[in-house]
């Protein structure tokens, strides 16, 4: 029935060892439209061994930087050829408007693959002046070696883009990988693996094992041949992964959630701030790690801004994202629908003023109305927890010090935006805010050359840019004795 997806291991599609399947459900119609292989410990073992043997065999590691660049560029061309198909796969699987991944994710994917082709040739070592060895001169130098087999664990909200953030960097560094896509969105990673084969990546370099987090994801983290886990997802899973990685001495990079503040000063361009806050709240139904869901507004304009944002929320057309004019589809899954509604009810119960949206009644499809709360306090659950849905919480502030204190009073620290006409103040606030990325008069710019990641509960490590590729290498030092 419908799509029937399998693992991609060592260049071949393969069923799960125990024959298990997981159903794919359309979030608009709630109909089953296909299934994928339910991976097992044995499947993970097969995939990791293929990636490990590829590294040991040396076929891929004999590719020098220029050769790695060539296949990365070829892969980028093939992704560009299939970009509509890939964007639609990601959109349809979670009920997102296909225009968003076409305009936002795919250009970023292509930029990442092409930037990584440049990084592949720049992973240079250093020559280090050293003090000699028992009176004899020495020469010491370092080389950058691939860290080994990487386990890449990916969420459902922007699956191809997040997969490629990891893939482009680790391939530039000469690693091999087992990708574990989300249960909601296995399609684009599997298609990417097939394109990589066409581009000339040897078998075993890129493997994909589909299945559940607590089965496939866990087995991947525990596998002895995995050198590094690169995880994007929830803090709960991240905590468990870091524990496992700690016990087994694996490298780990965690890109977790956020509760990112948008700080709107009263001198900001009202229209620009409004547009930026709407985008930061409603793009991808609010299911974006950097969603600007905590909107801190200077008291003098807070009521006017809240009313305008509520108006913008009411104007969003919600429905089947494949229908013309529809701007917002459903949230990705039933559990997400229940979670978002639970938080909306909590906001009402806690006494925030509901200006737009509200709890949605169950109907066909997991639709949520864009929701705006005003007059909220930073200690409310709707201000503290990541909701991962189209829900904005507006909190008034008095002055700059108040704004910074509120922005930093959060368990998270992924992104922040400062809206102001005073650029001196903008830089001062950007320096004071504890976050991995700050936008000044722009919400969450995506760029392949910029580092991305958070502090505190938002994670550990950075992806993106040249530093992202370096993070997939080990620096080895070699010292040679130079007798007279
Ligand atoms: P999730 O943690 O439930 O799942 C993410 C991935 O991890 C999935 O592939 C899942 O199968 C797997 N997984 C789950 N439990 C696991 C375990 N115990 N061991 C190994 N793997 C496991 O998250 P989600 O619901 O898919 O995504 C939403 C979360 O991701 C949000 O918190 C969001 O903020 C975060 N996110 C962060 C970024 C970022 O760049 N910081 C980007 C996108 C999403």
Automatic annotation (TrEMBL):
GO molecular function, one term: oxidoreductase activity, acting on the aldehyde or oxo group of donors, NAD or NADP as acceptor
Name this polypeptide is given: Acyl-CoA reductase
Family classification: Belongs to the aldehyde dehydrogenase family.
Domain Aldehyde dehydrogenase: 17-478
UniProt cross-references to Pfam families, sorted A to Z: Aldedh
Family annotation (PANTHER family): ALDEHYDE DEHYDROGENASE-RELATED
Keywords assigned: Oxidoreductase
Lineage: Bacteria, Pseudomonadati, Pseudomonadota, Gammaproteobacteria, Pseudomonadales
SUPFAM superfamilies listed in its UniProt record: ALDH-like
Active-site positions on this chain: 255
